[in-house]
């Protein structure tokens, strides 16, 4: 038992959790205030949202191998349900988020049904249809008394409860409101992927027929994968509402859905650390391109936007070419390659000694 | 009844716009197995090049064929420089590369040519009053697009089914190792597939630009519907691309007229999904069995 507590992984995990816990207050400490400002608290909140959403997409695409190009639609559904529950029904924040997540999960499970017959690009376009169609449905007369039609919904953001007013600002409160579910849901994803369900999903991805032969209920698990990832996207969407003052039908467009898919590939498909890297890149993508483009004179608004876009595309292409299995995949690869052993080998050769004996096969 | 016929005719016109870009998507899918998200932006970019040629006072058709040449080289270069390094990796990677190119080309075009739509001349053949076919009226550029997509479809059919190169391209797409063993230069075939599809895309762009105007965002909407059309028809079938495009255009128009103009796209996509549920590989796609 003591082993577990002493091992390195546990140490890093504890460090990361501690950092996340104090992050919104970091900019008030000396030393840290030189490079962190209160804007980073808002970014931390965005990170928490993307962590939830991309973790869900990674379960669907990375673990079960189903491609979704319309994941933005699930985020939108979650966001709308939460916004309607909070503004029309004045429901408490926690209940609204929970209900929005669960309802979106049920919808996702049902939408998984058509996916049973489709695969590859055909499934991709069917899911893309969701995000193309959704704005039309949200704007439609028959439901615009709830969705607000083209005008969308104006929201009042939740404030710090009175008892905590002295110790936290609204932004810091919202940060914890998003980060706590994010950590819990990441832990859930971690244990899920190591469970019977997770192994069934991976079997499904690697060979559908093979999985069926092994007794995996293919239909049920495919729909479960859709349901789970919609649950994550819906919860993320419900929390997303807190970063906006307004929710409109065009908020979650096709480009966003495509970007999310790109992010989980960049982070590393089919791994929890991959999902975490994906969320980091998603949150920081504009900072990264701006940091690099600092040297390029951009000039006006158009210049800035196009420089960002072109750089983003270029970085995307380069990172896929050089890290084809994403950040997480590259790290795992480096570990597997036994760099230490290789260096030792090289050193002993340079010194003219005989090579260390390898295990015979 | 007359209104119905006119709506069908308008639908066919819109549909032929989808069909011609869908052909480019089918061509690349058939010859490399990749769904190319940058197809629309590649077409847009090459159309801007054509526009520059025309601004240099070149004759329309000279500019047209010169652009096709540029597009072909451009397509082959893309395959060699950015697609080839990821071909052996995970299947999603080439798709992500095309998404990266999508963003890059769009931003670069916006930087060079700005966002305002520009008018693009249509060839002199298409000048004149709209044609009357019975009770329906169709504009000449639309008929031009339609005829062109039929021509391209026939050319693709002949290429893949009647020539040795086409056969080699099909083989390379289907089984790389076996193709190499029988002496097919697989790399060249894939580059050729990209070149041809970039050329079809360029032709599509130049034919669409007079109708939908030339701008960096001109292809965004069309591309999504072209995807839907290609999938509806079957991603490996040129005939399917045309039928898919036309059906999509007609359904969208009829739904807008007779059901509710606010949910025309919704109805069109519901039809696509309903079709896919019955035929998971599209109307004309080859239904495959998986080997264990």
Q: Architecture of chain B, according to CATH? A: Orthogonal Bundle
Rg over C-alpha atoms of chain A, rounded to the nearest angstrom: 23 Å
Tell me the span between the first and last alpha carbons of chain A. Answer: 35 Å
Note the overall shape of chain A.
Answer: globular
SSE series of chain A: HHHHHHHEHHHHEHHHHH
Write down the overall mean pLDDT of chain B: 87
SS summary, helix count of chain B? 11
**How many domains make up the coordinates of chain B?**
1
- Helix-strand category of chain B: mainly alpha
Give the ordered list of helices and strands of chain B.
HHHHEEHHHHHHH
Relative strand content of chain A = under 5%
- Cα separation of the termini of chain B: 53 Å
Regions with little confidence, pLDDT below 50 for 5+ residues of chain A:
354-361
The third-level CATH topology of chain B is ABC transporter involved in vitamin B12 uptake, BtuC
Which two chains share the most extensive interface? Answer: A-B, 49 and 45 residues
In CATH, what is the class of chain B?
Mainly Alpha
**Major beta sheet, strand line-up of chain B:** 1-2
Number of helices of chain A: 16
Classify the secondary structure makeup of chain A into a structural class. mainly alpha
- Sheet-strand content of chain B, in percent, reads under 5%
Please describe the biggest sheet of chain A, giving its number of strands, its sense, and whether it closes into a barrel.
Answer: 2 strands, antiparallel
Give a short overview.
With 361 residues, chain A is an all-alpha fold. Chain A has 16 helices and 2 strands.
Description:
- Among the domains of chain A are: 1-37, no CATH class; 41-254, no CATH class.
- In chain A, 71% of the residues lie in helices and 1% in strands.
- Chain A has helices spanning 2-6, 8-26, 39-63, 71-87, 93-115, 120-139, 144-147, 170-193, 196-206, 208-213, 218-240, 254-267, 272-293, 301-322, 326-336, 339-350; strands at residues 153-154, 246-247.
- Chain A has a two-stranded antiparallel ribbon with strand order 1-2.
- Chain B has a single domain, classed as Orthogonal Bundle (ABC transporter involved in vitamin B12 uptake, BtuC), CATH 1.10.3470.
- In chain B, 73% of the residues lie in helices and 2% in strands.
- Chain B is built from eleven helices and two strands.
- Chains A and B meet through helix 6, helix 10, helix 12 and helix 14 of A and helix 4, helix 9 and helix 11 of B.
């Amino acid at each position: 038992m003591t082993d577990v507590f002493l091992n390195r992984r546990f140490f890093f995990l504890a460090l990361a959790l501690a950092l996340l816990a104090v992050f919104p207050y970091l900019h008030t400490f000396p030393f840290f205030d030189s490079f962190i400002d209160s804007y980073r608290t808002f970014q931390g909140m965005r990170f928490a949202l993307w962590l939830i959403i991309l973790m869900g997409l990674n379960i669907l695409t990375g673990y079960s191998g189903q491609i979704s190009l319309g994941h933005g639609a699930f985020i939108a559904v979650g966001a709308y349900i939460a916004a309607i529950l909070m503004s029309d029904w004045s429901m408490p924040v926690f209940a609204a988020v929970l209900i929005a997540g669960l309802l979106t999960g049920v919808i996702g499970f049902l939408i998984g049904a058509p996916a049973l017959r489709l695969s590859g690009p055909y499934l991709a376009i069917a899911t893309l249809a969701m995000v193309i169609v959704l704005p039309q449905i949200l704007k439609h007369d028959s439901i615009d008394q709830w969705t607000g039609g083209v005008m969308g919904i104006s929201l009042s953001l939740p404030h710090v409860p009175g008892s905590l007013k002295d110790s936290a600002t609204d932004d810091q409160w919202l940060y914890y409101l998003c980060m706590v579910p994010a950590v819990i849901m990441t832990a859930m994803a971690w244990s899920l992927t190591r469970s019977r369900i997770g192994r069934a999903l991976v079997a499904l991805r690697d060979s559908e027929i093979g999985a069926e032969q092994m007794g995996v209920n293919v239909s049920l698990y495919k729909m479960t994968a859709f349901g789970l990832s919609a649950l994550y996207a819906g919860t993320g969407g419900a929390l997303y509402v807190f970063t906006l003052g307004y929710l409109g039908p065009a908020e979650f467009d096709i480009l966003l859905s495509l970007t999310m898919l790109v992010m989980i590939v960049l982070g590393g498909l089919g791994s929890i650390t991959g999902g975490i890297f994906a969320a980091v890149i998603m949150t920081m993508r504009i900072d990264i391109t701006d940091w690099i483009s600092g040297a390029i004179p951009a000039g006006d608004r158009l210049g800035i936007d196009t420089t960002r876009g072109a750089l983003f595309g270029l970085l995307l292409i380069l990172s896929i070419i050089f890290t084809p299995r994403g950040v997480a995949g590259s790290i795992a690869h480096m570990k597997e390659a036994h760099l230490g052993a290789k260096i030792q080998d090289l050193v002993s050769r340079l010194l003219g000694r005989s090579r260390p004996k390898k295990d015979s096969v | 009844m007359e209104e119905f016929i006119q709506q069908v005719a308008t639908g066919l016109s819109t549909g032929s716009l989808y069909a011609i870009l869908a052909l480019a998507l089918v061509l690349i899918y058939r010859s490399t197995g990749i769904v190319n998200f940058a197809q629309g932006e590649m077409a847009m970019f090459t159309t801007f090049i054509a526009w520059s040629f025309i601004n240099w006072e070149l004759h329309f058709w000279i500019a047209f064929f010169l652009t096709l040449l540029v597009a072909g080289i451009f397509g082959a270069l893309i395959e060699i420089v950015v697609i080839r390094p990821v071909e052996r990796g995970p299947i999603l990677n080439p798709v992500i590369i095309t998404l990266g190119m999508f963003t890059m080309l769009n931003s670069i075009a916006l930087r060079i040519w700005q966002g305002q739509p520009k008018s693009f001349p249509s060839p002199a053949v298409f000048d004149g009053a709209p044609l009357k076919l019975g009770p329906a009226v169709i504009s000449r550029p639309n008929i031009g697009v339609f005829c062109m997509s039929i021509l391209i479809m026939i050319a693709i059919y002949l290429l893949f089914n009647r020539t040795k190169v086409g056969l080699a391209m099909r083989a390379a797409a289907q089984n790389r190792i076996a193709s190499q063993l029988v002496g097919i230069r697989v790399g060249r075939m894939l580059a050729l597939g990209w070149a041809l599809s970039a050329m079809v895309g360029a032709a599509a762009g130049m034919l669409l630009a007079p109708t939908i105007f030339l701008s960096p965002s001109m292809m965004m909407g069309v591309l999504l519907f072209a995807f839907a059309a290609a999938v509806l028809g079957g991603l490996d079938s040129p005939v399917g691309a045309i039928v898919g495009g036309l059906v999509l255009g007609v359904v969208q128009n009829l739904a807008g007229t007779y059901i509710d103009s606010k949910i025309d796209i919704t109805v069109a996509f519901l039809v696509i999904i309903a079709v896919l549920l019955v035929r998971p590989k599209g109307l004309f796609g080859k239904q495959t069995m998986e080997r264990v």
